[in-house]
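Complex record, two chains
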Amino acid sequence: GNSVTQMEGPVTLSEEAFLTINCTYTATGYPSLFWYVQYPGEGLQLLLKATKADDKGSNKGFEATYRKETTSFHLEKGSVQVSDSAVYFCALSDPPRQDSSYKLIFGSGTRLLVRP
Amino acid sequence: EAGVAQSPRYKIIEKRQSVAFWCNPISGHATLYWYQQILGQGPKLLIQFQNNGVVDDSQLPKDRFSAERLKGVDSTLKIQPAKLEDSAVYLCASSRETNSYNEQFFGPGTRLTVL
């Protein structure tokens, strides 16, 4: 079945460092890909998404490009801030059955710690 | 616009006891999801409703878990009886009703500890 694999954390960086969190997926067909973020004590929030190959999703300085040839959707940010400390989840959408909405399949999450 | 509301935020019970969680989705969202997030793992879908009908409950342990969404708005998820391995955060999410992808909005979750 479809699945998502993320790099294990925690990832610890100093403020203004470059961030990469790796994500690869296994899927039949052409899923949409997402990054969700979970700040301490809060619910999951959509960070960015890409719906087809070579699309680049971006938001709040974060970017990820849908690479079909490598089945990857790595998250990057050029200069992280302390406020970026959170858990980041890569996810894909399972194609829907008739009359249903898309179902999300999540990776296990990567905790990011940014130190001042 | 108010977000997805869940209660309680925390619950501690003994194994073999029963527990219920409540979710109020964003107004106008026809699709409601319950996820289970075990510590160190990503959320796993338990059940998906479209209005008040179930469209996917393939990963719901039906011998102990049940869920309903009366009138197509609020939803409750029940565990009876609870096991130690049910300790997790239970997330509710909602999205608009269309045939293409719509963003799922998540509530803060209910953290369940089974002793």
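Note: The two ends of chain A are 41 Å apart (CA to CA).
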